[in-house]
Specification:
Elements lengths: L1 H20 E8 L2 E4 L7 E2 L6 E3 L3 E4 L4 E5 L5 E4 L4 E4 L9 E13 L2 E2 L2 E2 L3 E3 L3 E5 L3 E6 L5 E7 L2 E5 L2 E8 L3 E5 L9 E2 L30 H12 L28
Parallel strand pairs: 9-12
Antiparallel strand pairs: 1-4, 1-6, 2-3, 2-5, 5-8, 6-7, 7-9, 8-9, 9-14, 10-11, 12-13, 13-16, 14-15, 15-18, 16-17, 18-19
Length: about 260
């Protein structure tokens, strides 16, 4: 009796491990390519391909979409123009689900015992720890990662900066760049602030240059900046923003279009 039970256990365990080693492909539309871990190049997706394994890569083209399911019922929807690698998501020490190199993927993580499965998602610049059930990960052409949380919560950190974590709640998102911690979460309908640029501009362009002077003085530049930034102030008093106190001046900032 014990031998029979042991035999059945040995038969079941490999099957369970096999189920954890693969991801089932449930739907494919548009241009999709696949590169097995043992292959050197991508090949067009074939209807006969029902599973992808650890180390395999998938790539969607313009208008392409791919849905992949895990054994626990979790699944991910890969959008067009995306490239990712299946990772060792069943490992107890490194439960990395996928590494998204480019594009956008929406993850739907199943809950077991009231808690979401402890998967991680990697990008070239970020590590995302799954604490919620639905979230988006997007990577652009310069490896900037944007993570959006739709349900539950998601912890985000920068690769190489493990002590600077941002936790996203539903309806919020963050952005990650190489070498910098994740930015403060903002609402999904808001835009991340663009890099501010201070262009080099001739500040005395409205008046001819004085003879023998090729550049305006620092005092002239500061006062001119102050006037250009504070033209709408109706007050005319010492507390007015149009005061001649140059210590209250601020530089002219312009943002890229």
């Amino acid at each position: 009796m014990r031998r029979s039970a042991l035999f059945l256990l040995l038969m079941v365990v490999p099957t369970a491990l096999l189920a954890q080693n693969v991801v089932r492909v449930s739907s494919v539309s548009g241009p999709v390519e696949w590169k097995p871990v043992s292959a050197a190049n991508f090949t067009p997706w074939q209807p006969s391909i029902a599973m992808v394994h650890v180390g395999d890569q998938v790539r969607t083209g313009p208008g392409g979409m791919l849905t992949m399911e895990l054994a626990d019922g979790s699944y991910m929807v890969v959008s067009e123009n995306s490239t990712l690698t299946i990772q060792e998501f069943w490992s107890p020490t490194v439960p990395n689900l996928v590494k998204l190199m480019m594009g956008r993927v929406r993850f739907y993580i199943q809950r077991l015992g009231g808690k979401p499965n402890p998967y991680n998602v990697q990008t070239p610049s970020a590590l995302i720890a799954v604490r919620g059930t639905i979230f988006d990960v997007m990577v652009d052409e310069v490896n900037v990662t944007e993570v959006s949380c739709l349900d539950g919560s998601v912890a985000v950190e920068t690769i190489g900066l493990p002590n600077r974590e941002v936790v996203l709640e539903p309806g919020s998102k963050t952005q990650v760049r190489f070498g910098a911690p994740p930015v403060m979460p903002i609402a999904l309908n808001e835009s991340f602030m663009k890099n501010r640029v201070i262009p080099v501009i001739r500040k005395d362009a409205e008046e001819p240059l004085l003879a023998g002077k090729n550049n305006p003085s620092m005092d002239r530049l500061i006062r001119d900046n102050d006037r250009r930034n504070r033209t709408a102030d109706p007050l005319q008093a010492p507390r007015s923003t149009t005061t001649t106190d140059i210590q209250r001046a601020k530089p002219t900032l312009k943002y890229p279009n």
